[in-house]
Amino acid sequence: MHSLLPLSLLLVVVHHVSAVRIPFVVSPSLAKRDPISVGNTGNAQYVANITVAGNDIPVLLDTGSSDLWVYFAKPAANPSSITDTGKEVSLSYAVGNAHGHAQRTPITFGGYTVTDQAFLLVEDTSTFTGDIRSQGYQGLLGLGPNTGSLVRKKLDKKNADTLLQNIFTKAGLQQNYITLLLDRQKGVGTPFKGEMTISEIVPGFENITSMPRLDVETVTRLLRSDQHWQALTDKDNGVIGPDGLRIEFDSIVPRAPDGQLVAVIDSGFTFSQVPRDIADGIYGRVKGAVYDSTNEWWLLPCGQYLNISFNFGGRNYPVHPLDVVDDNFSKVDSAGKKVCIGSFQPITTAFSLLGHYDMILGMNFLRSAYSLYNFGSWIDNGPQDHPYIQMTSLVNPAVARAEFVQLRLAGQDTISTDSRWALLPADQLQKSPVSDEEKKKKYQEMVLSRWPYILLGCLAFTILSIGFCIWKCCCGRNKKKWSEKTALSKGLIPGRFRGGDSKNANHGATDIAERDRDTDLYSHRPNYNADEGGRHSMDNRSRSSSHYGMEPRKIEYPYGSTTELLRTNSHSSLQQPPSPYHQQTFPSHQQQQYQQPHGGYDQSGYDQYGQGGYGGQTAYQQQGGYDGYNQSGGYNQNHAGYGAGYAR
Length: 648
Prior knowledge:
By secondary structure, the protein is α+β, with helices and mostly antiparallel strands. Helix content is 21%, strand content 22%.
């Protein structure tokens, strides 16, 4: 995320400010250093000096990004020290693009010198919305983690670490942290000036080390997002509105814990960016408040006192009322009356494009809290603790109210007595209008923020659909198969079994065998019951139609089934199954045993039924439930059917 300045600075916010020259002294030793002076340009920008190729250049301090870029308003004092890498880099910010070539040169900051620091040299600033020199800066120093640097990525991470990473690594510091203290212009007796420190605490604010540690790495891993200085608000108590009640809002971050919001701490934004419902909850009940759709912020009377706060780590951090209703930009309404800007600006574009955070707390929040940023395990040679943020409040609510009364109400505290400052009832809260373009962007953001779940849902739906189709096909095939088997077993398919036509008599045994194969009735099962449905009923049907010379029988020998009497000339593709009993010679007494007459079949076929069937020699005779075959039998293909069976 590159978050130089908010939408409020799309205008030239400072018309009469020259470049700020901040005293900067390079200390040659690694002893304790003085804090880095931080200049304040109209409460809109905070800058510090940095020395690049011999030139002192004021740069914005931005905790929301990681790269260093500079623009030389005049030629470099030591141009020979600059080496062009030939790599083009483009960095995007809210007020324009910084484009140019990645360079290397010695750079000094805060008393530390890095002899070969990578940075982006910008030669054209016309893409910015205003003249950056007239606004008091000529570059930007990102104070974020090493992994967020685009210059480093362009140079394939080869000797291209950020300035802070190099300082922490090469100086051998015991604690890898920075602190940021922002002052307020137009205040009453400002007790401090803006300062920044590296691995040191600003004197007088030592209590910051006892404040809750807001674990940054845990949030990053939980949300699977890029590394930023971000923290979670307290559960179900994140933002307290001007009526003292919590402003309810559900996080747009898919993996955020229930009841908590993800806040990025970003010194590059003049105005904090918050969800629209929160901005409306702060300003929507103010009498005379109007939403400016052009600039996308609330306009309201400058005398409106609003007391809001945020909760982190069990601590309450109130925002100074002078920073809730901003009086730095000389705004007037349609009637020419002076008005102020609601400095908690609705997020109206897809800042949180992938749903990694809910709000950005910028300069107007940071003026109310002294902040410490510990890089922890982000620095390779340092302590491997999780990176974290600590903040200590700079606001005493009673003192802040007195200062507001003095500056905005001419010293007369009418906040509680003048009906103009009373909030409207909750049911009369005004909602800022949402444009069609914003609705489209909001929908796109919602889709993008939840694309993993949408993708998984589509994938699951596809798999289930394919599985259902396969299941239906299998069920259909099984149903058809079993229906056919049932019909086959009952002889209900005349086209398959042609026993009903005398012309097809020599096909009958073949069809019966095919039926038995399809219905598993010819399987070699012991204790076959001739009275079972299917085989018996079919044999009876066949026998009653006088086309099949067979009777129901028990099967005890694997080759003793009528299914072996299958073959005719018309079905030459079917071969006689092999039989261990085929064409064997048996002793005469065994032959006699199998040839004892039982009145079953004679040479004329089924004499028992008085119909012509299979001609030829005796086919087989029954004895004790066994089918006996005449040894002199075998296939006699000169007859209409089978002359005889197998000889055993």
